[in-house]
Structures are given as C-alpha cells and as structure tokens.
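Much of what follows relies on a compact textual record of a protein's fold. A complete example follows; check for yourself that the lines match position by position.
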Amino acid sequence: MKNKTDDKESKGLGDTIAKLTHFTGIDKIAETVAKAAGHEDCGCNRRREKLNEMFPYKTKEEKED
C-alpha cells in the first residue's frame, strides 16, 4: 500500500500514524491480514481521514496568528 503522505507535511494525527505504520511495515501486515480475511482493504485510509478530521494540526498560517 503506497502511503500518500510520505513526502507531505502531516495534516493531522492520522497522517502521522500512517507514516509510522508505513515506516515500521505494519501497513503491509494489515493489508495482508485484511485480504486473507476476505476484505477489499484494511480501512487504513478511512481511519487516517477520520483521525485527521478529529485531530488536525495547525497550518503554517494558523501558527503565525
């Protein structure tokens, strides 16, 4: 699974967790287990988006205020 946030600044907690799981290889394990269980995907992207909504990081403009 290619992580869309590898080279980008994290928008929120979900992006940070996605980077960590990608770096450690946990994302590949989750994808393999999900496929073995008959699921199309592991739900990582939905979870990342939800966590980004719930726990967003301040943008550069917000930090300057």
